Amino acid sequence: MENLTLFIAAAETLLESAASEMLAHRDEVYPNEAVGVLCDDGSCYPLINQARSAHQLEVSAFLVSEAIAMLVERGKSPVAFYHSHPTSSSGPSARDVEMMQTKPQALFVIIGQDGIAGWMWDDGLESVGAISLPDRERNVEPN
Ligand SMILES: [Zn+2]
C-alpha cells in the first residue's frame, strides 16, 4: 500500500524532529509515564498524566480537547498523541490498543526504552514508523 509507505516516511521524519522534546518531557516526569500532543512541526504539548504512574495513563478527555483547541488557535496542527513507557518497549500495551480502537486512524506515538514508534488502529494494529534511540537515550538516568 503506497500511501502507507509515504505515511510511514512522514511519520519517521516527525518522530526524528520531535524526539528531543519528547525525551525531555519523558525525563522530566520520570518515573511516571509522560503524555502529550505532538504537532506536525515536531513541537510537543505536554499533558498531565492524572494516574501519576509508571505503568498507567489517565488523561481527561476534556483537557485533551481543550489542549487541541488551544493549539489550533495558535496556528499549530496537532497530529498525534504520545506517551512514554519508562520501563518497557515502544510496543503498545493491551490498554493502548484498546485506546487506539476508540480513535481509528489516529497516530499514537510511544517512547519506549528501545526507541520511539508510531502506531495506529485501522481494522487492525498498524506499525507507522519507528526510530531507534542511541544507547545513552534509552534509559532515564535518575537525578
Ligand atoms: Zn502505553
Question: Bound compounds, please?
Answer: zinc ion
Name of the top-level CATH class: Alpha Beta
Low-confidence stretches: none
CATH architecture: 3-Layer(aba) Sandwich
Number of strands: 6
Overall morphology: globular
Rg from C-alpha positions?
A: 14 Å
Count, helices: 4
By CATH, the topology is Cytidine Deaminase, domain 2
Describe this structure in words.
This protein is an alpha+beta fold. The protein has one domain: Cytidine Deaminase, domain 2 (3-Layer(aba) Sandwich), CATH 3.40.140.10. Strand 3, helix 3 and strand 4 form a beta-alpha-beta unit. It is globular. It binds zinc ion.
Provide tags for this entry.
143 residues; alpha+beta; six-stranded mixed beta sheet; globular; binds zinc ion
What's the gist of this structure?
With 143 residues, the chain is an alpha+beta fold. The chain has helices spanning 2-29, 61-73, 94-102, 135-138, and strands spanning 35-39, 44-47, 78-84, 107-111, 115-121, 125-132. The chain is globular, with a radius of gyration of 14 Å.
Helices and strands, with pairings:
Blueprint: H1 2-29, E1 35-39, E2 44-47, H2 61-73, E3 78-84, H3 94-102, E4 107-111, E5 115-121, E6 125-132, H4 135-138
Parallel strand pairs: 3-4
Antiparallel strand pairs: 1-2, 1-3, 4-5, 5-6
Bound molecules: zinc ion.
